[in-house]
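All the exercises in this workshop are built on plain-text protein records. Sequence and backbone structure share a record, each on its own labelled line. The structure tokens are whole numbers drawn from a learned vocabulary of backbone shapes. The record below serves as our worked example for the rest of this section.
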Amino acid sequence: MSAQARSGVSLYLATQTFRNRGVVPLFALVLVFIAAYVYLFPGLLSVSGTSRFAQSWLPLALVSVAQALLMLTGGISLAIGSLVSLGAVVAATTMGGPLGVLGGGVLVALSGLVIGTVCGLIVVRLGLPAIVVTLAASFIISGAALLILPRPGGAIPPWFSDLLAGDTPAAIVLLVGGVVAWKLYLATPLGLSLYAGGENPVAAYRAGVPVDAARIAAYAISGLLCTGAGLFVAAKTGSGDPLIGQAFTLNSIAAAVLGGVGFHGGRGAMRGALAGSLLLSLMISVMFFLGLKPFYHYLAQGLIIVGAVALPELTARRKLS
């Protein structure tokens, strides 16, 4: 191996170590919960069991990636849940009609892309705080979802529900495809600009990095992932619900924080956000098999999040002292 190649490998390893600092304990905790889940539910090791679990994990994984994408740029979204609901109701009201699955899927994708792009333009071009813009957007989107479908209803074609949420490993394929797509995106100019624009946007801008375009693209992709998660939820339930996405907003933030993604941008990796979402899904499943009340689900989730945020801070202070 040449000296230049060794230097490149060393730089890559140093960058990955920096982005994944503090995430190793999370991976260990995930393995503990996987072992507990397998012990309580041995069927998880079968193709059918793994597929079923992946179906319950996929929507949370998608919204966690969507939230982490914005947090890497220094932003945050409170419209995650509303976008999931919108995707669900758009899918449920169009896929069973003249537009069919293809037309309905295109509308779901366009709604997420357009709304995400508009939010990104407002945040980037007008300089308004992301938390304010997305909070306002969440109310507007929720109202639109209720206008489209005032109460749970609509329908997803049974064959499409069976394809995505039946006995097929479609969710696993989508997860793997998403990981591959993320790696390819990081190789593009916008992907390369993502971390630089989040960590030090002024310096990145002066260096010629397309910071604004990278941030707007992040909002657009985030919106697409959220409405896509809504489509999958609708396929899994067979219908749409204008309120089904409410829990996803806080859970997406929790998963990203658990995965070591910082609120100030430029810190963390997408594998951490995926691991955080996996931990939340495993934790809920294990507690369900143990017969614990929902109160303990929320309590454990809160304690884990506090620990995940506090541990790196305490470690950093100990190093400074």
About this structure: Residues 166 and 236 are 8 Å apart (CA to CA).
